[in-house]
Specification:
The chain contains 12 helices and 12 strands. With 329 residues, it is α/β, with parallel strands linked by helices. The protein has 3 domains: 3-116, FAD/NAD(P)-binding domain; 139-192, no CATH class; 197-310, 2-Layer Sandwich (Enolase-like, domain 1). The protein is globular. The N and C termini lie far apart (63 Å).
Length: 329
């Protein structure tokens, strides 16, 4: 989500609602639910799935859900919204059990305002694209260079897809501009190899590359390295020592396949891993880089240190122990 989405939502409301229902347990729904709860609204968040933020690992979803509950959000998972009603001048949304929770009854939840946060679609009308014959379904059809059917029309951002992030739109804008201006000499394919994103709840959830569940689904032989912020001095001084870093690597190798960070400032901590993945740098390179003390970024080095300790050559260390024991006499 971008801050634009949050501010646009605030702008559409004349005042902070007393009773707010948020439909959707994805990143945007979770961000809005927590934000309005902290502004004083009585917020109920409804998700038809079994957990919030289902694209993340289950432990990340559980962490995020607890963070929302701690902020005062009533989280209802495995619930399906079926209809809205007005009873005695009051507005209600009716929800019923979904999935395995068939023993529960239909519930009416009163609300002042309702936010539907179940996804976004790009506005593709009003540009005259249909008249030009440019194909538009969920997005404007472009090639790898962001060129449409016509060599003088390029598309970037949400209208082009495949990612709805402001930082990806900025990334695409460079390619569209350069290819449009200099394409007759040289063109550049858009590089989507390493796409990061952050869910701006508190604490933040940032991710790049594969998470643990995706690695399992792809049948990759991998291992997980975890570092908890409870050991980070900067987090301790700011009383924000909840959260963790999870790094996915191939078994026995330090190549970074993906990283998930759950912490305050997670989005600010992540770029070092993004850079490493883009340029093929492994955890050993991060471990060998000096990090300033005391900073949040030190957590990256400590995570790399955990991986290194887990792969310490035991036979060599045993020989060194014997050697130094002999030297001491």
């Amino acid at each position: 989500m971008t801050s634009d989405t949050l501010w646009d939502t605030f702008a559409e409301l004349e005042e902070t609602p007393k009773k707010l229902v948020v439909l959707g347990g994805g990143p945007i729904g979770s961000e809005l639910a927590q934000a309005f709860a902290r502004l004083g609204s009585n917020v109920t968040q409804i998700e038809r799935g079994e957990r919030l933020m289902k694209k993340e690992d289950s432990e990340v979803s559980e962490f995020a859900q607890q963070a929302l509950i701690n902020s005062g959000v009533t989280v209802l998972t495995s619930r399906q919204a079926t209809r809205c009603e007005i009873r005695n001048g009051k507005k209600y949304i009716i929800v019923e059990p979904h999935g395995d929770h068939t023993d529960q009854q239909e519930t009416a939840i009163e609300y002042d305002q309702l936010i539907c946060a179940v996804g976004r679609s790009a506005r593709l009308e009003g540009y005259g694209l249909e008249a030009l014959g440019i194909e538009t379904e969920r997005t404007i059809s472009t090639d790898d260079y962001l060129e449409t059917l016509y060599p003088n029309i390029y598309a970037a951002g949400d209208v082009a897809g495949p990612y709805q992030f402001t930082h990806v739109a900025s990334h695409q804008a460079w390619y569209a501009a350069v290819n449009g201006l200099f394409g007759q000499f040289k063109r550049f394919k858009v590089d989507y190899r390493v796409i990061p994103w952050t869910t701006f709840i508190d604490p933040e959830v940032a991710r790049v590359g594969l998470n643990e569940q995706e690695a399992i689904d792809k049948g990759i032989d991998f291992e997980v390295t975890r570092y908890d912020f409870a050991d980070l001095d900067r987090a301790l001084t700011e009383s924000a020592n909840q959260g963790f870093i999870k790094v996915i690597t191939p078994a026995g190798k330090d190549k970074i396949l993906g990283v998930t960070i759950v912490a305050e400032h997670a989005g600010d901590i992540m770029p070092e891993f993004i850079l490493a993945m883009k340029h093929g740098l492994g955890l050993n390179k991060i471990l060998g880089t000096i990090h300033m003390y005391p900073t949040w970024a030190e957590a990256n080095k400590y995570a790399a240190g955990v991986w290194k300790r887990n792969h310490a050559p035991k036979k060599v260390l045993n020989l060194l122990e014997k050697y130094h024991t002999w030297r001491r006499g």
